[in-house]
TrEMBL record:
Catalytic reaction annotation: 2,3-bis-O-(phytanyl)-sn-glycerol 1-phosphate + 8 oxidized 2[4Fe-4S]-[ferredoxin] = 2,3-bis-O-(geranylgeranyl)-sn-glycerol 1-phosphate + 8 reduced 2[4Fe-4S]-[ferredoxin] + 16 H(+); a 2,3-bis-O-phytanyl-sn-glycerol 1-phospholipid + 8 A = a 2,3-bis-O-(geranylgeranyl)-sn-glycerol 1-phospholipid + 8 AH2; archaetidylserine + 8 AH2 = 2,3-bis-O-phytanyl-sn-glycero-3-phospho-L-serine + 8 A; a 2,3-bis-O-phytanyl-sn-glycerol 1-phospholipid + 8 oxidized 2[4Fe-4S]-[ferredoxin] = a 2,3-bis-O-(geranylgeranyl)-sn-glycerol 1-phospholipid + 8 reduced 2[4Fe-4S]-[ferredoxin] + 16 H(+)
Binding site for a 2,3-bis-O-(geranylgeranyl)-sn-glycerol 1-phospholipid: V369
A GO term, aspect molecular function: geranylgeranyl reductase activity
Recorded GO CC terms: membrane
Binding site for FAD: A15, E34, C45, A46, G48, R98, A122, D278, G290, I291
Protein species of origin: Methanocella conradii (strain DSM 24694 / JCM 17849 / CGMCC 1.5162 / HZ254)
PANTHER family: DIGERANYLGERANYLGLYCEROPHOSPHOLIPID REDUCTASE, GERANYLGERANYL DIPHOSPHATE REDUCTASE
EC number annotated for this UniProt entry: 1.3.7.11
Function in brief: Is involved in the reduction of 2,3-digeranylgeranylglycerophospholipids (unsaturated archaeols) into 2,3-diphytanylglycerophospholipids (saturated archaeols) in the biosynthesis of archaeal membrane lipids. Catalyzes the formation of archaetidic acid (2,3-di-O-phytanyl-sn-glyceryl phosphate) from 2,3-di-O-geranylgeranylglyceryl phosphate (DGGGP) via the hydrogenation of each double bond of the isoprenoid chains.
InterPro entries, per the entry: DGGGPL_reductase, FAD/NAD-bd_sf, Geranylgeranyl_Rdtase_fam, Geranylgeranyl_reductase, GGR_cat
Cofactor note: Binds 1 FAD per subunit.
Protein name listed in UniProt: Digeranylgeranylglycerophospholipid reductase
Length: 391
């Protein structure tokens, strides 16, 4: 490891790897570090990803695909169901093998010219005259200092980089989902269909999911909004759900974690530093999906870093261009979906049942699942039109 780079990226998830790839493709000297020994481990994700826009970032490889998704079923509290399907033979999305997907993204960053180090973590920022100038860290047990023109913090929902820079603080309980997930085996599930379950008995302020992984396996999990915690932990809700939906199944793996479901932050950059992905809290607050937004923000950060370094200006004012791009891009859908989330999490089960019936009357089931996803994750449909369906 050298002592000086153009860009240092902290965190080798989808956001960090994509940022490193983009910056390296601009001819910059890039260091990409990951605190864990193995890329993509442990998996803390439901592993679902719709394919819309994916090939802009990485070419399809069946090695990191467990299941191709061609449909979705959404269950209301009363058991009513909306069924969506994809027209034709083309898949709408994938259930990933995340550890292989993440490693493919890191390999892409390395092939673009990035230096990659695992078992390497940042322990602090080098800040001079109010500008971030690099990081302090530990690599394989040894301390180091590495200077850079720009640092990109992509170190996940618990982002230390964001806190050290003064950009990220504690998350309000109303803006975080506490999640639990089992990987289960020996189950009978539709291998090409996602299942989502809503209701306060299933998951207060969130939903439960069933994502098929092939070979009679599935990721089954749920999230509970922090402000709706009633003394019953997510894993207790999950056990109850799994016992009812998949009695007698084998639990192969259990994971837990938190997902930020926030509005867009005012600033996710400062002099010499930008935050990307979950570290910038750019998860879709309605769906809880973060992989695509992570890659989009990572690419934006890599591009803005290249432009700023080329111009010789990495000041807070110069990097504010990144904030503007986020707000004008994925930020519009995040802001719209945050408003909807604020309404949905307060909805009673009877309101959720009414919403599903309203959607059925709108003949929404005839719309391809890929178009439904695209509508939800872009800013084209005003929040008020969705909220009115409840009323």
């Amino acid at each position: 490891m050298r002592s000086e780079y153009d860009v240092i990226v902290v965190g080798a998830g989808p956001a960090g790897s994509t940022a490193a790839t983009e910056a390296a493709r601009h001819g910059l000297d890039v260091l990409l570090i990951e605190k864990r020994q193995e890329i993509g481990e442990p998996v803390r994700c439901a592993e679902g990803l719709f394919k819309d826009g994916l090939e802009d970032f990485i070419s399809y490889d069946p090695k990191w695909v467990c299941a191709e998704i061609r449909g979705a079923r959404i269950y209301a509290p009363d058991g009513s169901v909306l069924c969506f399907s994809q027209q034709g033979d083309e898949a709408a999305g994938y259930v990933l093998e995340r550890k292989l997907f993440d490693r493919a993204l890191v390999k892409q960053a390395a092939e673009a010219g990035s230096e990659v180090y695992v078992k390497t973590q940042a322990t602090g920022l080098i800040i001079e005259d109010g500008i971030v100038k690099g990081i302090k860290g530990i690599s394989n047990g040894k301390g180091f200092y590495a200077r850079s023109k720009i640092v990109i913090g992509a170190d996940g929902v618990e982002s230390k980089v964001g806190r050290w820079a003064g950009l990220i603080g504690p998350i309000r309980l109303v803006d975080i989902e506490s999640c639990a997930e089992f990987m289960i085996s020996d189950v009978d599930v539709d291998p090409g269909c996602l299942e989502l379950y809503f209701g306060n008995e299933v998951s207060p302020g969130g939903y439960a999911w069933v994502f098929p992984k092939g070979n009679k396996e599935a990721n089954v999990g749920l999230g509970i909004l922090g402000s709706r915690f009633n003394g019953v932990r997510p894993i207790q809700y999950l056990k109850k759900f799994v016992d009812k939906r998949f009695p007698g199944c084998d639990v192969v793996q259990a994971i837990a974690g938190a997902v930020p479901v926030c509005d867009v932050r005012h600033r996710i950059s400062t002099g010499g530093l930008m935050l990307a992905g979950d570290g910038a809290r750019l998860v879709d607050p309605l769906l809880g999906a973060g992989i695509m937004n992570a890659m989009i923000s990572g690419r934006m950060a890599g591009n803005v870093a290249a432009q700023a370094i080329k111009s010789g200006d990495v000041s807070s004012q110069a990097l504010q261009k990144y904030d503007v791009q986020i707000r004008q891009g994925i930020g519009k859908a995040i802001r719209r979906n945050y408003k909807i989330k604020q309404f949905v999490v307060k909805a009673t089960d009877s309101q959720m049942n009414k919403l599903l019936r309203s959607l059925q009357k709108m003949d929404i089931e005839s719309v391809p699942v890929s178009k439904i996803y695209r509508t939800v994750t872009t800013s084209g449909l005003p929040a008020i039109k969705i909220i009115k369906a409840f009323l």
